[in-house]
Design goal:
single chain, alpha/beta, 8-stranded parallel barrel, 12 helices, 8 strands
Length: 311
């Protein structure tokens, strides 16, 4: 199947109202903002989108909204939909739904809580999910620090390539670049290299240097311009300049992790930052908690000190 992604894919946040309901209307402004920042792909209902805290019906509505907006004149983008969760049946339903609305690609986490016991079980799980969307490119979402599923992804690709016809690659949210580099050189059943999308924003320069061409991450919503400059600098052989832009990413992630740790994760902090940039996406959903007013002020103050708002 011919499909690949180059450049930066924004892993999108889900907007919520103060009462915890999904705010579908807020996606319009958010999507337009991303287009203006040069983002041409989004990855929805993943970790950043709090997908595992959403109901199946909510996830369908969010997917429909993003796809609808992606087809508007001047606002075209490709929509990759994460369908995994705790229920295999609902994962399959979400895969079917994604196909029915014209998703450009689908992706799934490993089974959550009841984990696969070996790599062949993971391959079979992905095979069955992908089969529910037989004409849609499929990516496995490898995020071992969250799922606890740590099988070697090169071997996953080798064992999957003849049994999952739509498999295009992996969303590789691991810092193991040795493993990642082996995946980059692995071919599908037709002899085409798999599409491996890097998922750790604060290391993306290293990933591009070893051969990654695309990346999916949360901070691409917050500072897409910096990442575009990083990629351009690398293309022009300007290594020191590229490092400057990568260090800005490291600094942003460090500050957001520090403040997000007080609220259940980095997402509450990044939501504050995006709202400060003019895209009001509301609070996170429980069990994550919004930052207090004092912590929000401190967070924004720290970002101002490092120059974030001038980047």
């Amino acid at each position: 199947m011919s499909f690949s992604v180059e450049g930066f894919v924004a892993a999108t946040f889900t907007p919520f109202k103060d009462n915890g309901d999904v705010n579908l209307d807020a996606i319009d402004q958010y999507q337009e903002f991303l287009v203006q920042q040069g983002i041409q792909h989004v990855y929805i209902n993943g970790t950043t989108g709090e997908g595992t805290s959403l109901t199946t019906d909510e996830r369908k509505l969010i997917a429909e909204k993003w796809k609808e907006l992606s087809l508007l004149p001047g606002r075209y983008m490709k929509v990759l939909i994460q369908v995994g969760g705790t229920s295999f049946k609902e994962t399959c339903q979400l895969a079917e739904h994604a196909a029915s609305i014209g998703a450009d690609a689908i992706s799934t986490l490993a089974p959550l809580y009841l984990l696969p016991q070996n790599i062949d079980e993971l391959v079979d799980f992905c095979r069955q999910v992908a089969a529910r969307a037989p004409s849609v490119p499929f990516y496995y979402y490898h995020i071992p620090d969250r799922t606890g599923v740590r099988f070697d992804m090169e071997q996953f690709l080798v064992r999957s390539r003849h049994v999952i016809p739509t498999l295009r690659g992996v969303k590789f949210s691991s810092k193991d670049l040795y493993e990642g580099s082996r995946c980059l050189r692995t071919s599908d059943a037709q002899g085409n290299l798999f599409d491996i999308l890097f998922g750790c924003d604060e290391q993306v320069m290293s990933a591009f240097v070893i051969g990654f061409k695309g990346a999916i991450g949360s901070t691409y919503s917050l500072m897409a311009g910096t990442y575009h400059k990083l990629k351009d600098a690398l293309s022009n052989g300007q290594i020191q300049e590229a490092r400057t832009f990568q260090y800005r990413s490291v600094d942003l992630v460090k500050v957001c992790c520090e403040f997000g740790g007080q609220a259940g994760g980095i997402i509450p902090a990044m939501k504050v930052v995006l709202s400060k940039l003019g895209v009001d996406i509301g609070p996170p959903r429980f069990p994550m908690r919004p930052l207090s007013d004092a912590h929000q002020a401190d967070l924004l103050g720290r970002l101002a000190e490092i120059g974030f708002f001038h980047w």
